[in-house]
Write a structure and sequence with these properties.
Elements: E1 2-5, H1 20-46, E2 60-65, H2 79-99, E3 104-109
Parallel strand pairs: 1-2, 2-3
């Protein structure tokens, strides 16, 4: 079982000092959206049957989409966006550590500009 999760909003203009409204919206979509997806994907993966004789194993794979700005800076100010995608990377690492023993792999892609 697998799940690819993408959740993204990039506000325009991209202020280096975002308003509370822009900050909250960006975090809600980019970070909390991925969290909800992971939560329900993991619940489903934990319900997978385990039967060693038939080769069935509990677990699965989750791929979250972050961004290169989570690791590097961008050419334009993107404070809220970069922070939200950094949170996706941290969440991905934590979920990977916590659920490895259940056979659930959690990774992230960090694409650049398209």
């Amino acid at each position: 079982m697998g799940s690819v999760l993408e959740s993204c909003i990039l506000t325009t203009p991209m202020p280096s000092k975002p308003t509370k409204k822009i900050w909250d919206l960006t975090m809600r979509v980019n970070c909390k959206g991925v969290w909800w997806g992971c939560k329900y994907a993991i619940q489903a993966m934990l319900k997978n049957p385990t039967d060693e004789l038939k080769g069935l194993k509990r677990g699965g794979s989750i791929i979250n989409t972050a961004s290169f700005v989570a690791k590097l800076s961008a050419a334009t100010p993107q404070l809220a966006y970069a922070a939200s995608k950094g949170a996706v990377l941290a969440m991905t690492r934590e979920l990977a550590m916590v659920h490895a023993r259940n056979g659930i792999r959690v990774n992230a892609l960090c694409p650049g500009p398209l």
